[in-house]
Each structure stands twice: as structure tokens, then as C-alpha cells.
Amino acid sequence: MPDVGSDLMPEITNPHDRFFKEVFARKEVAADFLRNYLPADVLACVDENSINLTKDSFVDNELATHFSDLLYEVDLHDGSGAYVYVLFEHKSFPDSEVAFQLLRYMVRIWEQACRQRQLKKLPPIIPVVLYHGIVNWKISRKFSGMFEHPRALAPFVPDFSYLVCDLTRYSNDDIRGMVLLKVTMLLFKYIMSEELRGQLPEIFKLLKDLSDKESGMEYLQTVLIYLSKSTDKINRENIKEALKIAFPSEGGEIMPTIAEEWIQEGFERGMQQGMQQGVEQGMLQTARNNVLDILEVRFETNTVRHSICFL
């Protein structure tokens, strides 16, 4: 497989985009997504453990507020290679032109692959749309669905199909995967819904099943910042109350105190996007110092201070 994407991803400012890419950039999450959401016959062709994230984005700049994307390389069991292209649509309603956008992005992927290495055959691309709007996805999942033409002209119309992971059609029990993936998908499902407040305690409770407490701490921080920046369906008190319900044995004040730091960090980031990088880093440093001792109590580890050095 040619290495598509040597450039670094551009700075991410959209909270849905940031959360999606922070979580789905993890190899174990991406592989888990393929295992649980690709059709069985497609998955049978793919070695999901070979998945490798590239670093390019193919979404047009003017559409970046509504779409995010990640491109993965995978090995096929026949010895060849393919791409899995995940387009995350974070709009309330389906985009009727998404098939046209996918075609444009797929052509860019193939063009880049051809520039980087001579190819006798183009690698297949499995396009997946991850959708979490407020109405069901009812748009045709075939590119040819955008055309009206006499049957005799059908051979001249390009066509491909794309997969849709429509979270509006999934019940909570239908959402599968390991804890990180399941929590992420549930948050995407409810982030635009009035049901978010009532669902939060149960979503947070899933984090107790994480065996790696340090990873759980990092992920919880990512979740709290995402919640504080991406929705008007809840406020900080709702988040803190949900944490009290989900983590009652942690002593009533520990989790809310952590939440206050991280939620405040998220709100301040959202309000101060125009601030200089140095000022923002100073704020993050203060937040980190304030929660270190609390984190060590919650996660019972001596390495917590090292585990949040990414801040």
C-alpha cells in the first residue's frame, strides 16, 4: 500500500471534529469500529488488526465545519491492500450531496496514491459515513441515486455504494464495541438530543469497565472537554451531577472537583479561541497542577503525573 498522507493534520477547532479524531486516531478504537460496524462480508476480506491511520484530510475547507474525515490503510486477506475512509457528518440533517463529496474525496485519495507510487491497479476504498443528526438517514447510499436518466444511459453513469452508520437508528443496546468506542458512539448519538442529560450517568458508568485507569482518566478528560464545548443541551452542573451518580464511591466531591477543572477548561477554550497560544497553555498548566493530587486519589496510581503530560 502506498503511504497516503505524510503531512500533519491541520489544527482542529471544531469540538466534534476534535473529539472524533482524538478517539478514532487510536488504532484499537478504529479496529474495534471495523469489527463491529462493517458488514460481515466486507469484514471477512479485511485484516482489521493491520489498520493504520494516515495523516491527511480530504474534506474541503468550506465544509470542515460540518464534516470530519479519517483515512485508514488496511491489508486484505488476499494479500492486497485497501483504504477505509470514514466521513463523520456532524450536522442535524443528512447532506443530500454526500455521495458527490465522497466521490471527490476518493478521487483525491487515488490521485495521491498514484503520485506516491506507480500502481497497476487502484486499491479499493470502503467509504463509511458516520452520522449523528436528529433525523434518520434516508438518502440513497449509491452514487447513481443522484442521477435521473433513461435506462439505456446507465452504463455511462459512474457508480459506487457507501456504508452509513446512522446512530439515530441504533438503540443503546445496538451500539457495540469496547468501552472507548461505545462511550464515544453514545455521546455522538445523544449530543444533539434533549435526552443527553438523562443518558449521561449511564454513559459515564461504562468507564468503570476500563481496565487501564490511566487511559480512562485521559479519556474522561477528553469527554468532559467535548461535552463542555459541543452542546447546549446540558450545563456544567448537569455534568457534575451525572458524575456523582456514576461514581458514588469516589467520595462525592472528588469527581465533581475533577469535572469542574476540565469543564472549565473546555468552556474557557471555547470562549477564548482567539487568545494567543502562550496564554492558553498557561491556563492548561494551571488546570493540570490543580487536579494532579485528585487524579492520584481517584485512579490509585503513582504514574498519573506522567500520564497527563500531553496537556
Provide the fold topology.
Blueprint: H1 15-24, H2 27-37, H3 40-43, E1 46-53, E2 67-76, E3 81-89, H4 98-116, E4 125-131, E5 163-166, H5 179-190, H6 196-205, H7 213-230, H8 236-246, H9 254-271, H10 277-299, H11 304-307
Parallel strand pairs: 3-4, 4-5
Antiparallel strand pairs: 1-2, 2-3
Structure description:
- The chain has 311 residues and is an alpha/beta fold.
- The protein is built from eleven helices and five strands; from the N terminus they run αααβββαββααααααα.
- β3, α4 and β4 (125-131) form a beta-alpha-beta unit.
- α1 runs antiparallel to α7 and α5 (179-190) packs antiparallel against α6 (196-205).
- It is globular, with a radius of gyration of 21 Å.
- The two termini are 34 Å apart.
Compact summary:
The chain contains 11 helices and 5 strands; from the N terminus they run αααβββαββααααααα.
